[in-house]
Amino acid sequence: MGIHEQLDKVEIRRRLLKKRQSIPVQEWREKSDRICRQLQNSTLFTQAKTILAYFSFRQEPDLSPLFTDTKYRWGFPRCIGKSLNWHLWKPQDAVQVGSYGITEPHPHAPTIDPVEVDLILIPGVACDYQGYRLGYGGGYYDRLLSSPDWANKPTIGIVFDFAYLPQIPIETWDKPLQLVITENHF
Predict the structure, then answer these.
(1) CA-CA distance, 184 to 178, in Å (whole number)?
(2) Which of 53, 54, 105, 166 could pair with 109 in a Cys bridge, judged by C-beta atoms 3.0 to 4.6 Å apart?
(3) Regions of the chain short of the pLDDT cut 70
(4) What is the pTM assigned to this prediction?
(5) Cα–Cα dist 75/88, whole Å
(6) 126-128 β-sheet, strand order
Protein backbone atom coordinates (compact mmCIF):
# COMPACT_ATOMS: atom_id res chain seq x y z
CA MET A 1 0.00 0.00 0.00
CA GLY A 2 1.36 3.42 -0.96
CA ILE A 3 1.78 6.42 1.29
CA HIS A 4 -1.00 8.12 -0.66
CA GLU A 5 -3.62 5.58 0.42
CA GLN A 6 -2.36 5.73 4.00
CA LEU A 7 -2.99 9.49 4.04
CA ASP A 8 -6.40 8.97 2.48
CA LYS A 9 -7.39 6.57 5.24
CA VAL A 10 -6.20 8.86 8.00
CA GLU A 11 -7.94 11.84 6.40
CA ILE A 12 -11.22 9.98 5.76
CA ARG A 13 -11.19 8.66 9.34
CA ARG A 14 -10.54 12.13 10.79
CA ARG A 15 -13.24 13.79 8.69
CA LEU A 16 -15.93 11.19 9.36
CA LEU A 17 -15.27 10.95 13.11
CA LYS A 18 -15.51 14.72 13.35
CA LYS A 19 -18.78 14.67 11.42
CA ARG A 20 -20.20 11.86 13.57
CA GLN A 21 -19.37 13.62 16.80
CA SER A 22 -21.05 16.81 15.61
CA ILE A 23 -24.48 15.14 15.13
CA PRO A 24 -27.03 16.68 17.55
CA VAL A 25 -28.09 14.13 20.19
CA GLN A 26 -31.73 14.09 19.09
CA GLU A 27 -30.76 13.32 15.47
CA TRP A 28 -28.23 10.69 16.64
CA ARG A 29 -30.99 9.00 18.66
CA GLU A 30 -33.44 9.03 15.73
CA LYS A 31 -30.88 7.69 13.25
CA SER A 32 -29.82 4.99 15.75
CA ASP A 33 -33.45 3.95 16.29
CA ARG A 34 -33.93 3.69 12.52
CA ILE A 35 -30.85 1.45 12.31
CA CYS A 36 -32.33 -0.76 15.05
CA ARG A 37 -35.53 -1.08 13.01
CA GLN A 38 -33.55 -1.92 9.86
CA LEU A 39 -31.79 -4.69 11.80
CA GLN A 40 -35.11 -6.08 13.01
CA ASN A 41 -36.16 -6.37 9.34
CA SER A 42 -32.99 -8.21 8.38
CA THR A 43 -33.17 -11.99 8.00
CA LEU A 44 -29.57 -12.38 9.16
CA PHE A 45 -30.59 -10.71 12.41
CA THR A 46 -33.99 -12.31 13.00
CA GLN A 47 -32.63 -15.83 12.41
CA ALA A 48 -29.71 -15.42 14.80
CA LYS A 49 -29.69 -16.66 18.41
CA THR A 50 -26.31 -15.45 19.69
CA ILE A 51 -25.28 -12.03 18.43
CA LEU A 52 -22.03 -10.19 19.06
CA ALA A 53 -22.59 -6.45 19.34
CA TYR A 54 -20.90 -3.35 20.77
CA PHE A 55 -21.58 -0.57 23.26
CA SER A 56 -21.80 2.75 21.41
CA PHE A 57 -18.68 4.91 21.77
CA ARG A 58 -18.07 8.42 20.43
CA GLN A 59 -21.53 8.63 18.87
CA GLU A 60 -21.41 5.30 17.04
CA PRO A 61 -24.93 4.16 16.13
CA ASP A 62 -26.51 3.08 19.40
CA LEU A 63 -28.04 -0.40 19.28
CA SER A 64 -28.87 -0.59 23.00
CA PRO A 65 -32.68 -0.62 22.50
CA LEU A 66 -32.19 -4.09 20.98
CA PHE A 67 -30.25 -5.49 23.95
CA THR A 68 -33.36 -5.93 26.10
CA ASP A 69 -34.76 -8.46 23.61
CA THR A 70 -34.41 -11.73 25.52
CA LYS A 71 -34.99 -13.75 22.33
CA TYR A 72 -31.24 -13.23 21.70
CA ARG A 73 -28.07 -13.97 23.63
CA TRP A 74 -25.85 -10.89 23.45
CA GLY A 75 -22.07 -10.87 23.47
CA PHE A 76 -19.78 -7.87 23.87
CA PRO A 77 -16.03 -7.45 23.46
CA ARG A 78 -13.29 -6.80 25.99
CA CYS A 79 -9.95 -5.65 24.58
CA ILE A 80 -7.23 -7.96 25.84
CA GLY A 81 -3.85 -7.02 24.44
CA LYS A 82 -4.27 -7.07 20.68
CA SER A 83 -7.42 -9.15 20.55
CA LEU A 84 -11.09 -9.11 21.48
CA ASN A 85 -12.51 -11.51 24.06
CA TRP A 86 -16.28 -11.95 23.85
CA HIS A 87 -18.50 -12.20 26.93
CA LEU A 88 -22.21 -12.83 27.42
CA TRP A 89 -24.07 -9.81 28.76
CA LYS A 90 -27.65 -9.02 29.84
CA PRO A 91 -29.00 -5.52 30.60
CA GLN A 92 -28.93 -6.18 34.36
CA ASP A 93 -25.23 -7.23 34.32
CA ALA A 94 -22.38 -5.02 35.46
CA VAL A 95 -20.13 -3.24 32.98
CA GLN A 96 -16.82 -1.45 33.35
CA VAL A 97 -14.79 1.02 31.33
CA GLY A 98 -11.88 -0.61 29.48
CA SER A 99 -8.49 0.65 28.38
CA TYR A 100 -9.78 2.84 25.51
CA GLY A 101 -12.62 4.36 27.49
CA ILE A 102 -15.01 1.85 25.90
CA THR A 103 -17.69 0.17 28.03
CA GLU A 104 -17.01 -3.56 28.45
CA PRO A 105 -18.61 -6.53 30.20
CA HIS A 106 -17.16 -7.51 33.57
CA PRO A 107 -14.04 -9.75 33.22
CA HIS A 108 -15.85 -12.55 35.10
CA ALA A 109 -18.82 -12.60 32.71
CA PRO A 110 -19.09 -15.95 30.87
CA THR A 111 -17.08 -16.07 27.65
CA ILE A 112 -18.61 -17.00 24.31
CA ASP A 113 -17.26 -19.77 22.14
CA PRO A 114 -17.09 -18.93 18.40
CA VAL A 115 -19.20 -22.00 17.53
CA GLU A 116 -22.16 -20.45 19.38
CA VAL A 117 -22.09 -17.20 17.41
CA ASP A 118 -24.63 -16.61 14.62
CA LEU A 119 -23.96 -12.98 13.76
CA ILE A 120 -21.45 -10.18 14.42
CA LEU A 121 -22.60 -6.54 14.37
CA ILE A 122 -19.54 -4.44 13.66
CA PRO A 123 -19.15 -0.71 14.20
CA GLY A 124 -16.77 1.31 12.08
CA VAL A 125 -15.80 4.74 10.88
CA ALA A 126 -17.11 3.95 7.38
CA CYS A 127 -18.21 1.14 5.08
CA ASP A 128 -18.36 1.11 1.31
CA TYR A 129 -20.87 -0.28 -1.19
CA GLN A 130 -18.74 -3.44 -1.57
CA GLY A 131 -18.94 -4.14 2.17
CA TYR A 132 -15.41 -3.07 3.05
CA ARG A 133 -14.99 -1.37 6.41
CA LEU A 134 -12.78 1.43 7.62
CA GLY A 135 -12.10 0.91 11.32
CA TYR A 136 -10.30 2.93 13.94
CA GLY A 137 -6.85 1.71 12.96
CA GLY A 138 -6.34 -0.82 15.77
CA GLY A 139 -6.98 -3.89 13.59
CA TYR A 140 -9.08 -5.69 16.24
CA TYR A 141 -11.90 -6.72 13.90
CA ASP A 142 -9.47 -7.45 11.03
CA ARG A 143 -7.60 -9.91 13.25
CA LEU A 144 -10.83 -11.42 14.54
CA LEU A 145 -12.34 -11.96 11.08
CA SER A 146 -9.16 -13.42 9.62
CA SER A 147 -8.85 -16.07 12.34
CA PRO A 148 -10.21 -19.48 11.25
CA ASP A 149 -12.77 -19.72 14.11
CA TRP A 150 -14.41 -16.46 13.09
CA ALA A 151 -13.76 -16.17 9.33
CA ASN A 152 -17.10 -17.59 8.18
CA LYS A 153 -19.43 -15.85 10.62
CA PRO A 154 -22.13 -13.61 9.15
CA THR A 155 -21.21 -9.95 9.64
CA ILE A 156 -23.17 -6.72 9.43
CA GLY A 157 -21.41 -3.36 9.37
CA ILE A 158 -23.28 -0.62 11.22
CA VAL A 159 -22.69 2.99 10.13
CA PHE A 160 -24.69 6.15 9.60
CA ASP A 161 -25.63 6.98 6.03
CA PHE A 162 -23.03 9.75 5.64
CA ALA A 163 -20.31 7.15 6.36
CA TYR A 164 -21.60 4.71 3.72
CA LEU A 165 -19.32 5.51 0.80
CA PRO A 166 -18.95 4.33 -2.81
CA GLN A 167 -15.38 3.23 -2.09
CA ILE A 168 -12.75 3.34 0.65
CA PRO A 169 -9.02 2.53 0.44
CA ILE A 170 -8.53 -1.18 1.18
CA GLU A 171 -5.66 -3.48 2.10
CA THR A 172 -5.02 -6.90 0.58
CA TRP A 173 -6.10 -8.59 3.84
CA ASP A 174 -9.40 -6.70 4.16
CA LYS A 175 -12.46 -8.89 3.91
CA PRO A 176 -15.85 -7.44 2.97
CA LEU A 177 -18.72 -7.68 5.47
CA GLN A 178 -21.79 -9.54 4.32
CA LEU A 179 -24.14 -6.64 4.77
CA VAL A 180 -24.02 -2.97 5.70
CA ILE A 181 -26.94 -1.32 7.46
CA THR A 182 -27.47 2.44 7.81
CA GLU A 183 -30.58 4.36 8.84
CA ASN A 184 -31.60 4.48 5.15
CA HIS A 185 -30.13 1.31 3.69
CA PHE A 186 -30.13 -2.44 4.24
Answers:
(1) 17
(2) 105
(3) 1-7
(4) 0.94
(5) 4
(6) 133-134, 126-128, 164-165
